[in-house]
Amino acid sequence: MQLSNIPQIKHTNSGQFFLLAGPCAIEGEDMALRIAEEVVAITDELQIPYVFKGSFKKANRSRLDSFTGIGDEKALKILRKVSETFKIPTITDIHTEQDATMAAGYVDVLQIPAFLARQTDLVVAAAETGKTVNVKKGQFMSPESMKHAVTKVTETGNDNVWITDRGTMFGYHDMIVDFRGVPTMQQYAPVVLDVTHSLQQPNQSSGVTGGRPALIGTMARAGIAAGVDGLFMETHFDPSNAKSDGANMLDLGLLKKLLSDLVAIRQVVNRL
After folding, report:
1. 18-271, CATH topology level
2. What range(s) does the DAHP synthetase I/KDSA domain occupy (predicted)?
3. Contact between 27 and 239 (Cβ < 8 Å)
């Protein structure tokens, strides 16, 4: 798999999985730089190709009073500062065709949220920017159906596309990851496993999404053993006070041990 089209990405010849990681939402400049600095230090030590993740706005919220962002341009400028400060690429999710054009001026990878994976105009608009497009598999979609999402990108002339699995909805409050889908989707594009959103418990009566962060390590280890190309995870130095998705984020203090374990598993997988 080629990552060379991603500006400033490092360690591409290490044989390791690549990592998309950062806070759920950009809450401010200091928090973004603090998280990025720590993740960069860890991934450089372990030689993991790294892309900093942060949403410049959150459009998919359970309640009207949920945190949605600090302002689009303000958050996008913070993502640009993270990239310039640490010489790393960045990724953010978009929700409209206008978002695609705007965000492409600040970040290196555009992400299509899972609920919007079938929105043709949005996917095409992202592809037409020339940026790498990360399409999250809808919780309601089969692995096989993601072929069509990928084709929407490639038929614009953009071959830089990934698929991210974040589970399939079973019942009202749980997602299940079916690892049989990994080799299926790898026929179409590199596959990323979103280990934190896969452990969400949405649609709670409180209107606040729950999660099972104690299982992040289990999910991540299973993904690497199954041969995924990359991992996606949200992390924060204070998940309980994060403004979005704190219930299923990884505490930043646990990241180095987890990634060290995953690097060791990947080395075994590579040998096999």
Report:
1. TIM Barrel (3.20.20)
2. 8-260
3. no
Output the CA–CA distances (angstroms, integers) from residue 218 to 159, 167, 247, 272, in the order listed. 32, 14, 17, 21
Taking residues 85-107, report their average pLDDT. Answer: 97
Q: Domain ranges in the chain?
A: 18-271
CA distances from 251 to 2, 185, 195, 235, 257 (A): 30, 30, 13, 6, 11
Give pLDDT tens digits for 114-156.
Answer: 999 999 999 999 999 999 999 999 999 999 999 999 999 999 9
Angle at 50 between CA 46 and CA 54, to 5 degrees: 135
Q: Which of 1, 194, 184 is nearest to 93 (CA)?
A: 194
Strands 210-211 and 50-53: unpaired
3-35: pLDDT as tens digits: 888 999 999 999 999 999 999 999 999 999 999
For residue 93, which of 216, 259, 247, 244 has the smallest C-alpha distance? 244
More confident residue, 64 or 171: 171
205 pLDDT more than 50 = no
Instruction: Give me 158's structure tokens.
Output: 């953009």
